[in-house]
Amino acid sequence: MMIKKDMLLGTALGLILGCSGAVFAQAPVVNIGDRHGNLRAAQQSIVSAWQKIDEAQQDNHYQLGGHAGRAKELLVQADEELRLAANTANSHER
Length: 94
Hints:
The chain has helices at residues 2-25, 37-59, 67-91. The protein is mainly α. It has one domain. Helix 2 runs antiparallel to helix 3 (67-91).
C-alpha cells in the first residue's frame, strides 16, 4: 500500500512540475515588428498580462486551482496567433 501511495505521489508531482515547466518555458515575447503596430501593441499586452498572472501566482503561492496556469497557456496561444497574423500580412505585402 505504501509503495502505491509513494508511486502515485511521485507521478502527480512529476506531472505538476512538468506542466508548470512547459508554461514557464513558453512565456510569450514581443517579436512582431513596428510594421504591424496594432499587432505589436496587442502582443505587448499579452506579455504584460502573462507577467501579472505570474506575479499573482507567486503572491498566492501557486494555489489558484490551476486557473492562472491555464490563463497563461491561453495567452501563449494568443501570442502565437498574433505572430501568425503578422506573418500572413507579410506574405501579402501589407
